[in-house]
Amino acid sequence: MRALALALIVAASPAAAMQAFDINSGVVLQGRIESGDEAAILPKLRGVVELNSPGGSVAAALAIAETVRKRGLTTYVPPEGRCYSACTLIWFAGARRIAHSTSYIGIHRASAETEAFADVVSRALAARLLAWGTPRAIVDAMLATPNSSLRAVRADELPADVELRP
Q1: Strands, E, within the chain: which ranges?
Q2: What is the pLDDT of residue 6?
Q3: What is the distance, to the nearest Å, from the Cα of residue 4 to the centroid of all Cα atoms in its chain?
Q4: Which domains does the chain have, with CATH numbers?
Q5: What pLDDT is recorded for position 17?
């Protein structure tokens, strides 16, 4: 009986929430980014990385973003796709970034155990985003937006090198 209960708990435990699907041009990443997801996702990263995620773990997203950047991959938010919060780290890390006029990209400050630690994390992420060529105005908006809110990035705020499709 005890083994059955343990088996049911294990079977009911959620797996890594972010899913990665291979497509001809690369990989689709969708779902919430959970701590540990990067272990399964990093080996699959290639070509175009299509994103549709509400965000999640900053540490996991940053590991994925660093790999995207090192490999010189393209990041893409599809029409009506959503890339919020930690997902934007991955998108902004792309060597080539593509979005649509109907894509949703949302930013805010990092969340952490304390406000002081959230400030340290947010400033470290801001430095990384600036190093990747993210405009200062977007980084400043991220730092000014509480983690309980979400600020949409407008098309006219995107870097000039972003390929914005209709």
Answers
A1: 19-23, 26-30, 48-52, 74-76, 82-84, 96-100, 104-107, 151-152, 163-165
A2: 27
A3: 37
A4: 15-165 (3.90.226.10)
A5: 84
Query: What per-residue confidence (pLDDT) applies to 157?
Result: 92
Distance, CA of 132 to CA of 19 (rounded, Å): 25
Which one-letter amino acid corresponds to residue 64? I
Strand 82-84 with 48-52, pairing: unpaired
Low-confidence ranges of the chain (pLDDT < 70): 1-16
Tokens of 57: 């773990």
State the Cα–Cα distance between residues 126 and 58, nearest whole angstrom.
13
Q: What tokens does 156 get?
A: 């006219």
The Cα 22–Cα 120 span in angstroms is: 35
> What's the whole-model pTM score?
0.89
Question: What sign results for the dihedral spanned by CA atoms 101, 104, 108, 112?
Answer: negative
Identify whether the C-beta of residue 18 lies closer than 8 Å to the C-beta of residue 34: yes
Residues with Cβ within 8 Å of residue 63, at least 6 apart in sequence: 38, 42
The contacts of residue 139 (CB under 8 Å, 6+ apart) are 126, 129, 130
* Residue 46 confidence (pLDDT): 97
Q: What whole-number distance in Å separates Cα of residue 122 and Cα of residue 55?
A: 15
